[in-house]
Amino acid sequence: MTDAEKGDEPLTNRRRVAVQYESALGSAEMVLEKGAEIAKTIENAQTTATRLGAERAGVIYFGGQDDMIPTLPAEVEPNPMCGYRLSAQQVRQLGDTLDLHGVKVEAGGWVPLGQPMRGLIPLLLDERSEHAIATVPPVAECPAG
């Protein structure tokens, strides 16, 4: 905030609108210029997430943010679970929300980590996540089939 803005709220608001407009415009231009590259990067990330989940590889994070990898033991699971099993009631309560987030719930309420939204699943379902919408015990062993 500049000295001029400190006493002039409309001036501050006009600057904020201008900055947001330029940000939106820049984002749109980037998508137009690099759309194919962006789509390929997303596809590769989804493929990698699905593979890591199916192989029970990589690390699961319950904390942190975009610019900070969590390091506390409670925020990291170095031995990934196979998935989560929802009760019938949880499927009814959470099914639409999980679907909106791209999380697939299979027959019997099974939510495997071997899917593109692998990183989001524990954040939504595990008791170790501060953002969990339900607390579902992780399943260590994958079901047969």
TrEMBL record:
This is Uncharacterized protein.
